[in-house]
Task: structure prediction
Amino acid sequence: SQQGEEDPQALSIQEGENATMNCSYKTSINNLQWYRQNSGRGLVHLILIRSNEREKHSGRLRVTLDTSKKSSSLLITASRAADTASYFCAFSGYSTLTFGKGTMLLVSP
Amino acid sequence: DVKVTQSSRYLVKRTGEKVFLECVQDMDHENMFWYRQDPGLGLRLIYFSYDVKMKEKGDIPEGYSVSREKKERFSLILESASTNQTSMYLCASRATVTTNQPQHFGDGTRLSIL
Result:
């Protein structure tokens, strides 16, 4: 399987600013998911967008999916210090997920 | 909430040892997964299981085996540990085989092979 690519690898912003992370993939997908990982912990599921959806919202999170460009973006609005974590996209084939390498987000107070 | 529990947060073993990593989930999920996570490489799938006594190879199964004798428990076995298996190991579960569901992760086992 082929991993997704995430951009940027690292992002540093101030509290209150918006953070945008991008993910690209190479194969056709059933859905694309975003996960968060706090330092030294497991991954936590944030949001899932199906291949026939273009945009989805959950609280301060907005995810877009462009299947023609094979790309997705995660927007975190009004970021908080507690949003500091690594964020991973994962795209879904038939039965398993393929994870990207992640974006490290640092939100400074 | 789904709880996925990995038996050890940190583990140190010696080269050549047989190592068992245990994972238990409490939500009667059918599917379970083992990943390893390495800096710069992200998460890579080692093995997964659709149901009891079923297993499928992931992307990097070499040097590993798995066991799923009960639905709630999925064990990863390093038959003869080597230093290149030093890594963070993450277990996950998912309710059913349909991929339109999230995976739920444990907190990981950081394994060092000396």
In short: The radius of gyration of chain B is 13 Å. The mean pLDDT of chain B is 94. The interface with chain A takes residues 4, 33, 35, 40-45, 48, 50, 58-59, 90, 92, 97, 99-108 of chain B (CB under 8 Å). Chain B is about 0% helix and 55% strand.
